[in-house]
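Running this now, will post back.
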Amino acid sequence: MDKKTELIQKNTYTFEDLCDIVKILRAPGGCPWDAEQTHKTIRGNFIEEVYEFIEGIDNDDNAIMREELGDVLLQVVFHARIAEDNSEYFLDDVLTDICKKLIIRHPHVFADVKADTTEQVLDNWNAIKMQTKGQKTAKEALDGVSRSLPSLMRAEKISSKLNKYGHGFATEDDIISASSSLKTEEDIGKLLYLVTSYAKSKGIDPEKALYDECDRIISNEK
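Update: finished.
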């Protein structure tokens, strides 16, 4: 029995089966569309699938989460297959990297480091992350924040890192001062950053706060 027939006749599937299906789709005689894709052409697909999974979380919808998590997993396997076809790296390399990262960044589980609280765990995680990435200064740590993140999330991460370097979070007075003159794009950007930083200081997720406010505005519209 060939691989295609074997896959067609199965009732339940494994991670290995998913890898085999993607390999078949991209191989000669497979799907022309799948074979033509690159990391960049399906970049948007990955983002879309993640957001659709998040929608499932927000709605407490297990059916959506199950379906969209499969789509996210497909994107992981698809990108790994593209990389393997281009002799860039292999799926096993991806799995090895994440397994090593988890072991290294959990020394309180896999070594003899003590961390009894969530705060201690996060402090260790961040310290190890900076060490393994060779980040020694605040600038290097800030450069490590992905520029592809939504701006509110990026601002939140930047303000958190700056706080760890003693810069502190924004205050109400900072926001009032910045809002007194809003004439340029830079002025607006500064105010948005300060509001994000202030929210972080209060333990509020600014991305979720704005998300919920948008929902309130829509629901109140008649």
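DSSP finds 13 helices and no strands in the chain. More later if anyone needs it.
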